[in-house]
């Protein structure tokens, strides 16, 4: 091809601006509040007047008047040198007269740009400045000498790129592993949401879809590379380097393009010739491939049947691959690239002798999540990241229910309530939570922020509610319509609503059951409203009228006056029915009502927590529920019991239930042994417990209360797994014993120490499910030699999931020299993965609260190095944010705040995180102060075995001594 009008430029280097500004802060009063200023970003200024362009406003976005038709990416990869040379050729359709074409880019340098028209004639570029680069907005603008007309054009860009050595930088990045004590490297991609531009200039938004052809040139010492599609041909170049060209992808967005260069090996134990299913990993753990291969292939076939669209036929004329790669270093949990899914090793490699049940559950769920994306996200893609829920909500939904069908023993259908519904309701309790459809998504920071609870857990929870509402068959039909009608294209919320309306219209029972209800309007309300509602229930026992009022639930602040159309399922004590979860009423206004039989009997809404809302009852109804739970808890479904305790504990936090009523309801936990119920309670009980830490009398009383609550569960569950235990029984044992040991339950501690000592002295392996708390108790009650023993085990392990269990346990030690060693290792040991370093502070503080001073001093001395070795400013911010829940003394808050302000310039963008840490810690103390006396009084009044020997005056005196403002 004859290329002219070409300009060469060198790499653009940045300049460091040093400042000797010093901020002197002498006195900071917490009661006044904290203020800070953020430096303004320096914006590049460009004159666009008189230009016709495809650049949108704001300049992060592109207009749709230029569309990619096909893109070829040719990379010459030098793995050892962490660099590559690239050529990208983009065939585009220009839809209107233009003087500029803008592409996204974030490469090292662009050396040449040329443009041909449809007849392959060169198109003249402007001289000077044929193209300009904007580093802030990450774009390159191609400037034409004169206006071009609509038609097809071919843009060729020669450039240089870097292989990032920090995986958190994403794009094409470099990782490492050891094999036979030899350090080896690999390079792989992570492009979502806007990092493809780091590997090649492109249209880096989900709405721009086209086929990609990838060519990789690599060293001959490496094994064949991987990409979305199979290798079409391989050539050995005169230099001895190997060039591999892959088949073109189907129509796909740039963020789903992927490639991988390494000496990794693959296995194909579960697929067939027509339906290959490969697990790929570093050399060494190939014997850990079989579980993912088996469950992943089953899930693929389950989804093919459910959606009535074959995965392997999605290649638009070429068979799709189904590769799954385990990566030692990966910034995300997994990534759904079409044909080549990337995972952290711990999420894909299963070792029968070392992988515990939660990790096994996590593997099945994550594999199902990424496979569901092949339909939701890859085949049909959200238009823009504001509608990310169209991708992630469905993947989050099917990760439970498809995996459950593949492996029912794991109980993923019921587990959905804990992991998604209650998690989403927790996030939605914040006044600052964003809606599922967040129209404010405009720039890179807001894009990243939307990858959170609303798009994943909340969206999935809303889908589950709708499935119960319209029935599973209608729900499935709606999804089939959506996928078929929008295949290989872009999906909008209105497309989803239209598919649901069509499916519902074919079901005559819906109109009969819910006259006047439009399913699209119901759906859209949950998508557009931030937060989630609480339904307040008032039961007139004389008339049987059950009055309902809805409002948004928030922990604090005044909620907006949003209204949802809430499908209501309910039952009552006269005729309990927890099997039928299809709603019988839709609450469309602020208030409404249903009718129960007259007489004194309880009412329970939201059967098996099938809807996405909280429920708060009047005091009489709460009392009747509490009595039922104490007398025969099993009358009420375990998932409803889980919701009840979770709701009550959140109502305590929000001050929306009286303390006596709340503890009356919670009293049944003393006889409760079910995993789902306790899981709904534990996190919130721990939250309250920690907020009383600065008030010793109240804290000790609450500790005694918790020990009394868990004692029966400990007795029932025992200390060892049985051969016939269910998955939930095993997990109940894990969570209850971990909780009990941390509270100081003597039986738990004694059993754990016995197992630890046997492990140390006789090398008797600790049962997999017991390792987390046994290792922690062993180190907490041991010395430096116990720490060194486990650290050596960590460094020689070949199973990443088990390594994480050990890593969490190492800072349980009370030997502060050992804790310091752990913290320094997180900066310097390349055995500790970059994605695990971010959790170092959390592990150290969760393992032993006595580590706080060591962690603070480590942060104060090493924050600059932490920022660098953990992977950047965001990682330092994440580490500091872990402190907020453990700054339980006023003096420690002042100490942290003083350091923060003395180093305001040096900590950079982490300063605002530090301010939030201080504010959160202060609010935690205030919350504890406000409820301590009432909780103390209530617990003492409920204790028949303990006389009231500590007056409330003593509690208040302690409060005044610890926190004055």
TrEMBL record:
EC number: 3.4.11.-
Known cofactor(s): Zn(2+)
Gene Ontology terms, MF aspect: metalloaminopeptidase activity; peptide binding; zinc ion binding
Cell compartment(s), UniProt: Cell membrane
InterPro entries named in the record: Aminopeptidase_N-like_N, Aminopeptidase_N-like_N_sf, ERAP1-like_C_dom, M1_APN-typ, Peptidase_M1, Peptidase_M1_aminopeptidases, Peptidase_M1_dom, Peptidase_M4/M1_CTD_sf
Ranges where the ERAP1-like C-terminal domain occurs: 602-903
GO biological process: peptide catabolic process; proteolysis
Family recorded in the similarity comment: Belongs to the peptidase M1 family.
Designated name of the protein: Aminopeptidase
């Amino acid at each position: 091809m004859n290329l002219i009008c070409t300009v060469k430029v060198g790499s653009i280097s940045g300049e460091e601006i040093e400042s000797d500004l010093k901020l002197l802060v002498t006195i900071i009063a917490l009661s006044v509040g904290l203020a800070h200023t953020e430096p303004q970003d320096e914006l590049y200024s460009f004159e666009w007047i008189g230009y016709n362009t495809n650049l949108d406003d704001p300049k992060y976005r592109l207009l749709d008047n230029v569309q990619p038709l096909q893109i070829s990416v040719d990379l010459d990869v030098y793995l050892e040198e962490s660099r590559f040379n690239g050529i990208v050729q983009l065939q585009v359709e220009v839809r209107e007269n233009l003087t500029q074409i803008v592409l996204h880019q974030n490469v090292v340098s662009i050396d040449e740009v040329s443009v041909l028209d449809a007849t392959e004639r060169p198109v003249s570029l402007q001289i000077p400045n044929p193209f300009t680069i904007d580093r802030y907005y990450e774009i390159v603008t191609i400037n034409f000498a004169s206006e071009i007309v609509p038609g097809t054009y071919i843009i060729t860009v020669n450039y240089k790129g870097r292989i990032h050595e920090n995986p958190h930088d994403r794009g094409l990045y470099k990782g490492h592993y050891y094999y036979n004590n030899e350090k080896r490297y690999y390079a792989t991609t992570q492009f979502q949401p806007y990092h493809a531009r780091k590997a090649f200039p492109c249209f880096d938004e989900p709405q721009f879809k086209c086929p990609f052809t990838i060519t990789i040139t690599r060293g001959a010492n490496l094994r064949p590379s991987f990409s979305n599609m199979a290798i079409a041909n391989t050539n050995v170049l005169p230099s001895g380097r190997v060039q591999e060209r892959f088949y073109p992808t189907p129509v796909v967005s740039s963020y789903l393009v992927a490639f991988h260069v390494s000496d990794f090996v693959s296995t194909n134990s579960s697929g067939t010739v027509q339906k290959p299913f490969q697990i790929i990993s570093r050399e060494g753990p190939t014997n850990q491939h079989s579980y993912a291969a088996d469950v992943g292939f089953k899930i693929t076939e389950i989804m093919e049947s459910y959606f009535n669209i074959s995965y392997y036929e999605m290649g638009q004329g070429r068979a799709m691959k189904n590769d799954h790669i385990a990566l030692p270093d990966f910034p995300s949990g997994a990534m759904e690239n079409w044909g080549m899914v990337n995972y952290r090793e711990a999420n894909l490699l299963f070792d029968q002798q070392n992988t515990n049940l939660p990790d096994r559950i996590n593997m099945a769920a994550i594999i199902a999540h990424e496979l569901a994306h092949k339909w939701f996200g890859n085949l049909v893609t959200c238009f823009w990241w504001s509608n990310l829920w169209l991708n992630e909500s469905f993947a989050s939904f099917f990760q439970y229910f498809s995996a459950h069908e593949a492996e029912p023993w794991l109980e993923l259908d019921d587990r959905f309530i804990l992991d998604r519904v209650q998690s989403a309701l927790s996030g939605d309790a914040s006044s600052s939570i964003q809606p599922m459809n967040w129209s404010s998504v405009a720039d890179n920071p807001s894009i990243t922020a939307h990858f959170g609870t609303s798009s994943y857990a909340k969206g999935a929870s809303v889908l589950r509610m709708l499935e119960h509402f319209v029935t599973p068959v209608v729900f499935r039909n709606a999804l089939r319509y959506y996928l078929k009608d929008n295949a290989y294209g872009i999906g909008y919320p209105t497309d989803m609503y239209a598919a649901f309306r069509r499916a519902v219209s074919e079901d005559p029972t819906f109109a009969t059951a819910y006259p006047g209800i439009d399913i699209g309007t119901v759906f859209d309300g949950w998508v557009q409203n931030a937060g989630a509602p609480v339904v307040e229930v008032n039961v007139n026992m004389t008339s049987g009228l059950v009055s309902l009022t809805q409002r948004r639930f928030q922990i604090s602040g005044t909620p907006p006056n949003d209204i949802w159309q809430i499908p209501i399922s309910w039952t009552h004590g006269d005729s309990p029915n927890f099997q039928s979860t299809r709603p019988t009423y839709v609450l469309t206004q602020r208030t409404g009502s249903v009718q129960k039989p007259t007489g004194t009997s309880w009412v329970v809404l939201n059967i098996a927590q099938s809807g996405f809302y909280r429920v708060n009852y009047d005091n009489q109804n709460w009392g009747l529920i509490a009595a039922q739970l104490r007398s025969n808890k099993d009358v009420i479904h375990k998932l409803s019991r889980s919701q009840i305790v979770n709701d009550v504990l959140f109502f305590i936090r929000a001050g929306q239930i009286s303390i006596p009523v709340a503890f009356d309801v919670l009293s049944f936990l003393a006889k409760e042994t079910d995993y789902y119920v306790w899981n709904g309670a534990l996190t919130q009980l721990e939250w309250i417990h920690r907020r009383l830490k600065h008030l010793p009398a109240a804290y000790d009383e609450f500790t005694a209360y918790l020990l009394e609550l868990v004692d029966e569960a400990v007795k029932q569950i025992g200390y060892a797994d049985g051969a016939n235990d269910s998955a939930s029984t095993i997990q109940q044992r894990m969570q209850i014993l971990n909780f009990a040991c941390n509270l100081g339950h003597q039986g738990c501690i004694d059993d754990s120490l016995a197992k630890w000592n046997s492990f140390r002295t006789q090398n008797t392996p600790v049962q997999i499910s017991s390792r987390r708390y046994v290792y922690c108790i062993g180190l907490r009650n041991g010395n430096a030699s116990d720490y060194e023993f486990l650290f050596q085990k960590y460094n020689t392990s070949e199973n990443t999931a088990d390594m994480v269990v050990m890593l969490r346990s190492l800072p349980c030690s009370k030997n502060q020299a050992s804790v310091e060693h752990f913290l320094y290792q997180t900066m310097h040991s390349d055995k500790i993965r970059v994605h695990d370093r971010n959790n170092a502070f959390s592990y150290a503080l969760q393992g032993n609260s006595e580590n706080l001073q060591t962690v603070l001093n480590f942060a104060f001395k090493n924050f600059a190095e932490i920022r660098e070795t953990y992977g950047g400013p965001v990682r330092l911010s994440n580490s500091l944010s872990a402190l907020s829940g453990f700054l339980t003394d006023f003096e420690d808050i002042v100490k942290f705040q003083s350091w923060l302000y003395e180093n305001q310039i040096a900590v950079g963008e982490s300063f605002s995180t530090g301010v939030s840490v201080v504010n959160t810690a202060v609010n935690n103390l205030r919350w504890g102060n406000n409820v301590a006396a009432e909780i103390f009084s209530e617990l003492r009044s409920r204790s028949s075995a303990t006389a009231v020997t500590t007056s409330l005056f003593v509690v208040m005196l302690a409060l005044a001594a610890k926190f004055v403002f």
